[in-house]
Amino acid sequence: MSQVSLAKDKIQILLLEGVHDSAVRILQQHGYSNIEFLKTSLSEAELCEKVKDVHFIGIRSRTQLTAKVFQAANKLAAVGCFCIGTNQVDLTAAREHGVVVFNAPFSNTRSVAELVLAEIIMLLRRIPEKSTAAHQGGWDKSAAGSFEARGKILGIIGYGHIGSQLSVLAEQIGMQVRFYDTEDKLSLGNALQVATLDELLSIADVVTLHVPETPQTQWLIGAEELQKMRPGSILINASRGTVVAIEALADALRSKHLGGAAIDVFPVEPKGNDEEFESPLRGIANCILTPHVGGSTQEAQENIGIEVAGKLVRYSDNGSTLSAVNFPEVALPTHAGSRRLLHIHENRPGMLTRINQIMADHNINVSGQYLQTDAKVGYVVVDIDTPAESNLADTVLAEMREIPGTIRARVLY
Ligand SMILES: NC(=O)c1ccc[n+]([C@@H]2O[C@H](COP(=O)([O-])OP(=O)(O)OC[C@H]3O[C@@H](n4cnc5c(N)ncnc54)[C@H](O)[C@@H]3O)[C@@H](O)[C@H]2O)c1
Ligand SMILES: O=C(O)[C@H](O)COP(=O)(O)O
């Protein structure tokens, strides 16, 4: 499971799903040239084969990194999710294999909030069906069923980075914001938190979902919840496809209980742009269907590329795990003038003592030491004063790997 120090051009990086060029630029600027770039995702079987030689992998929301993939990924040090969601990665398996997972928690949030705001206005004015009619030669000039957004109640489920930004934007056009969140949240502007999901559903003219995919959010909105929404109200989902029971939503739209919907994420999404999109929502009036593009803007993708590639570089160069989603977080200074050893282990008592005993045995001067643990994993970083040409670091590394409970150890180049 361990990995020796490698020259940067030997470090293999695999970028999938067409992550933005900015990621490649950042990696190259920091000396990483061994980069394979694919526009598509890969299946589990393809990944298991491909990851064997890979040290860093970059994915978006489509690539499923399962326990089986981590089992095959002997050399993998870190995963960069070039998106917000990390539900596509088995985070526990990653941690058990000593693989650090990073994401981009902020960079595409504004893009999602803007799209949802636009959809609210479009749906309240019944623009999707009027536009479809016009494309077919129709002329549906009528105010029936068309409303201003001003004064309407926007119900936000999940008041995190996206939900709270949308809250601010929606107030700018005069909407009244109410939100439901399982955590107590600071209300921005005049927004108010409500105590229960049912309360939110019963008062909102527009309900929009901004929760992560978790066991608790799976099918959060089913037939029962849809019935609790106000007649003629609107549902928007740009979170994850498993949050809304899609057949029940199709029924609620067909029966006209709901006045419209905008859905960006689906329980099953095509694997690529050349696969047909199947959904019970196809053909339903006043229903905007978008191909998971909430975060797909030039600005967001470029920023995500820079942000996540930067995190991979800092981990590779320095061992920094700041803002990792599955790992003890350590923010580290550079280590010019010393060799840096990383030791990832099961969180058992006495690990640090064992590591320091090895340093003492070799009469090594430790110039810096950092330890961070969580319930399962411990992460120790040791800076030792030894000339770059000495092989003492490799000797020490070999001994550190022998410590029972070691998951992964390496020395930084
Ligand atoms: N469509 C897209 O392209 C796109 C783009 C970005 C993000 N997303 C999705 O949007 C999600 C939200 O993003 P974010 O940046 O706002 O995340 P966030 O973590 O900042 O906010 C999520 C909020 O949901 C709340 N929450 C969690 N479980 C809940 C529950 N059961 N009921 C009510 N509230 C609950 C949390 O407390 C938190 O406040 C992401 O996890 C991702 O899946 C989609
Ligand atoms: O989690 C996210 O950030 C969004 O779902 C966007 O995913 P994408 O990078 O696959 O568009």
Structure description:
- One of its GO terms (molecular function) is (S)-2-hydroxyglutarate dehydrogenase activity.
- This is D-3-phosphoglycerate dehydrogenase.
- Residues 340-413 form the ACT domain.
- Keywords: Amino-acid biosynthesis, NAD, Oxidoreductase, Serine biosynthesis.
- It is an enzyme of class 1 (oxidoreductase).
- The chain has 413 residues and is of the alpha/beta class.
- The chain folds into three domains: 1-103 and 297-327, NAD(P)-binding Rossmann-like Domain (Rossmann fold); 108-289, NAD(P)-binding Rossmann-like Domain (Rossmann fold, 3-Layer(aba) Sandwich), CATH 3.40.50; 328-412, Alpha-Beta Plaits, CATH 3.30.70.260.
- Helix content is 31%, strand content 19%.
- It has helices spanning 21-29, 44-50, 67-72, 91-96, 109-124, 127-135, 161-172, 197-203, 223-228, 246-254, 298-318, 351-361, 392-401, and strands spanning 13-15, 35-37, 56-59, 78-81, 100-102, 153-157, 176-180, 192-193, 206-209, 233-237, 258-263, 287-289, 339-346, 366-373, 377-384, 406-411.
- The protein has a seven-stranded parallel beta sheet, sandwiched between helices.
- Strand 10, helix 10 (246-254) and strand 11 form a beta-alpha-beta unit.
- Helix 5 (109-124) packs across helix 7 (161-172).
- The longest helix has 21 residues, at 298-318.
- It is elongated and about 85 Å long.
- The relative contact order is 0.13.
- Residues 84-85, 108-109, 112, 157-163, 180-183, 210-214, 216-217, 238-240, 264-265, 292, 294-295 line the site of nicotinamide-adenine-dinucleotide.
